[in-house]
């Protein structure tokens, strides 16, 4: 779990980002302007900051100049010009995401930056299974089990996007890539094998007429 500052002045977007970060296991802190975001950064420790470029108080670019270089930054902005992108990356940002964006894309970018900066937990434990994301090892009740490369990639996609409903098409895209000429049955067969190997028949949920969701919420 990472502690993430979400500095975005559009409240609806801020709430959407925070809600989805929370669902996949992170701890988001919202901020609606640059001055408030700076105060939070100065008084709290964060593993990552998501900064809108155009905010009241301080812009995302101005804010980046004032915060510690040890805090990874992803700019999230509607400014899609090359000059803005180069300015943001030139300030040392770790990534630059253009609005509008798919929430799954944002989550993937967050995950990538956290891993690259060694601020993401590399072990996921749930329902008797332990998944070591960095070594690609999987243990069930203490015993190592073998997954094929695609089975592990599928498991990793489900873990990264846990508690979110993923369509079969989205899973095909995430795991097999844009050019894969497969069909939804491919996903179904791999899900079936994962459930059996992990004993996760009640953990990897079928989402009616859509796809699958890895349920990692203890209340369910």
How would you characterize the overall build of this protein?
The protein is α/β, with parallel strands linked by helices. It folds into two domains: 3-116, Rossmann fold (3-Layer(aba) Sandwich); 123-214, Arc Repressor Mutant, subunit A (Orthogonal Bundle), CATH 1.10.10.10. It is built from eight helices and twelve strands. The protein has helices at residues 11-23, 34-43, 60-66, 82-90, 103-116, 149-160, 168-176, 184-198; strands spanning 3-7, 27-31, 48-52, 73-77, 95-98, 123-126, 129-132, 137-140, 143-145, 166-167, 204-207, 211-214. The strands form three sheets. Strands 2-1-3-4-5 form a five-stranded parallel sheet, with helices on both faces. Strand 6 and strand 7 form a beta hairpin. Helix 2 runs parallel beside helix 3, helix 6 (149-160) packs across helix 8 (184-198) and helix 7 (168-176) crosses helix 8 (184-198). The mean pLDDT is 92.
Question: Into which percent range does the helicity of residues fall?
Answer: 40-55%
Shape: elongated
SSE string, helices as H and strands as E: EHEHEHEHEHEEEEHEHHEE
- The CATH superfamily of the largest domain is Response regulator
Structural class category = alpha/beta
Topology, number of strands: 12
| CATH architecture descriptor text of the largest domain | 3-Layer(aba) Sandwich
Q: Gap between N and C termini, in Å? A: 20 Å
CATH topology of the largest domain: Rossmann fold
- What's the CATH class label of the largest domain? Alpha Beta
